[in-house]
């Protein structure tokens, strides 16, 4: 049973944009914060962005502030990550996850129900 499904990854040149989507099961999505994380090759998974259960609050990693925007559509049980001004340092596998709290959080330990990931490659 697929509970989280990411899509929208791909290869772009530096300065380009991508929009990631994550379709979630109602059980995971409804009353929980949602987050995006990424994992560059050979590195640990790192926080990118989070959004509270009703979309009222968001949090971003310093490296993506001003370039990435997280949003959620409660009618579609989907969370999005709009990524602009991409750089090669943004390359990695991007994962979405549902938090065990309604509050947007950077703590990876607060998340469960990870998706399979979608790969983003930014070339210089």
Kindly describe this structure.
The chain is mainly β and 124 residues long. The protein is 3% helix and 47% strand. The strands form two sheets. Strands 2, 4, 5, 6, 9, 10 and 11 form a seven-stranded mixed sheet that branches. Strands 1-3-8-7 form a four-stranded antiparallel sheet. The longest helix is centred in the first third of the chain and has 4 residues, at 26-29. It is globular and about 40 Å long.
Number of helices: 1
Rg, Cα atoms, Å: 13 Å
Residues in helices, as a percent range? under 10%
Structural class assignment: mainly beta
Beta-strand residue percentage: over 45%
Report the sheet with the most strands, covering strand number, pairing sense and barrel closure. 7 strands, mixed
List the uncertain runs.
Answer: none
What is the helix/strand order?
Answer: EEEHEEEEEEEE
How many DSSP E strands?
11
Mean pLDDT: 95
What form results from the Cα inertia axes?
globular
End-to-end span in angstroms? 38 Å
């Amino acid at each position: 049973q697929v509970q989280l499904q990411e899509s929208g990854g791909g290869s772009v040149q530096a300065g380009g944009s991508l929009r990631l989507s994550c379709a979630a099961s109602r059980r995971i999505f409804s009353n929980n914060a949602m987050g995006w994380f990424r994992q560059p090759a050979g590195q640990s998974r790192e926080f990118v962005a989070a959004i509270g259960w009703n979309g009222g609050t968001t949090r971003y990693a310093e490296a993506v502030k001003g370039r990435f925007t997280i949003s959620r559509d409660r009618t579609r049980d989907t969370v999005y990550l709009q990524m602009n001004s991409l750089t090669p340092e943004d390359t990695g596998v991007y994962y979405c996850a549902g938090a065990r709290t309604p509050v947007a959080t950077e703590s990876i330990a607060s998340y469960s129900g990870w998706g399979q990931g979608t790969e983003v490659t930014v070339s210089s």
